């Protein structure tokens, strides 16, 4: 049995690197305690937003500017600003032992290398025989890789300066001519690493034949983390976040009222991912689950706390609700068509439009003449989707409406009367329930409420199902 762990550190946490050193990487460890770990790091908080686009407000980064502009060179100014931002991060890390002249040189080499590639690509596509669209995913991957390489290289440097035998494992594909498959690339990278005497610092991005971003977009860091854990047969995977996995968002219900979840299963983790509250990307969880590797979610700033252990087998001994979660960035897309009755292919036809726009339903309602999908996507995409559905079904009425989804989740929710209690809690809070989604599998129940009542719904359910004795 292997003894090592694979640990991922998120971007927001990496931006507080002095605490990362004290709580995760070094702390009170010494000698052999420093090893038998593999550390996978994300880019510092906000860097990937600058390189691609802002994850939440979609403000344009280098990639967005490059891909949407035919003649403007604003992307070149933007990448220069990213370079300056990275060097400012380097300066902040100098007191921790970073050689900033070496670190700045590393940043500028990567930035200028990418700038040259983009300039050459622009010239090449100007001749008409090459189409820029065919290369944009490669551009996106190349840009995103800069952030992970920057943070991993800095971490390696700082640890080395403190006498730790760290090793920089660059999976980003920089200046490599061989394009290996994902699994093969990681096997090759770890083939000669002595985990008992070396501490690998790994880039969260892996350049590979499959193209991680094409499938997982910005979930690539967790895919790298998962694949490294599976291939090296880790004892445990650990994700260090800036918060505990709790019964609800502390900002909504209050830190004094939330309950830290000591254990749950991968099934619940998948439901959280669907709601945009990922403990881990569901595809990353899939590999670990199949390999029997448990996942631990830890608060990076409370290193002594064991955190939440996620396994395939966990089931609460007592039937109960564990988590109240949800999202309020949801749009209801309702298709009502009297001619739909008796036609079994209508839903398939509608789903073809979702596939064409790269959208996936978070939930769905269906009756004789109405199909309603709940999706999270930009409004302009939703409008295009609605127009496409209308063209396929000219007699249909298409309704678009902003709503919120609120879920109660648990590894064992065989609680008698749980649905009644949940609806009662919402009703007593003056919240109308527009739809309910409940499966036979006792993992979660989902409620559709008005968008502006999202936080009120979370609070009401938390009080009724977790703060009171039901």
From TrEMBL:
<keyword id="KW-0067">ATP-binding</keyword>
<keyword id="KW-0547">Nucleotide-binding</keyword>
<dbReference type="GO" id="GO:0016301">
    <property type="term" value="F:kinase activity"/>
</dbReference>
<keyword id="KW-0418">Kinase</keyword>
<protein>
    <recommendedName>
        <fullName>aspartate kinase</fullName>
        <ecNumber>2.7.2.4</ecNumber>
    </recommendedName>
</protein>
<feature type="domain" description="Aspartokinase ACT">
    <location>
        <begin position="406"/>
        <end position="463"/>
    </location>
</feature>
<comment type="similarity">
    <text>Belongs to the aspartokinase family.</text>
</comment>
<dbReference type="InterPro" id="IPR001048">
    <property type="entry name" value="Asp/Glu/Uridylate_kinase"/>
</dbReference>
<dbReference type="InterPro" id="IPR045865">
    <property type="entry name" value="ACT-like_dom_sf"/>
</dbReference>
<feature type="domain" description="Aspartate/glutamate/uridylate kinase">
    <location>
        <begin position="5"/>
        <end position="299"/>
    </location>
</feature>
<dbReference type="Pfam" id="PF00696">
    <property type="entry name" value="AA_kinase"/>
</dbReference>
<dbReference type="InterPro" id="IPR054352">
    <property type="entry name" value="ACT_Aspartokinase"/>
</dbReference>
<keyword id="KW-0808">Transferase</keyword>
<dbReference type="Pfam" id="PF22468">
    <property type="entry name" value="ACT_9"/>
</dbReference>
<dbReference type="InterPro" id="IPR036393">
    <property type="entry name" value="AceGlu_kinase-like_sf"/>
</dbReference>
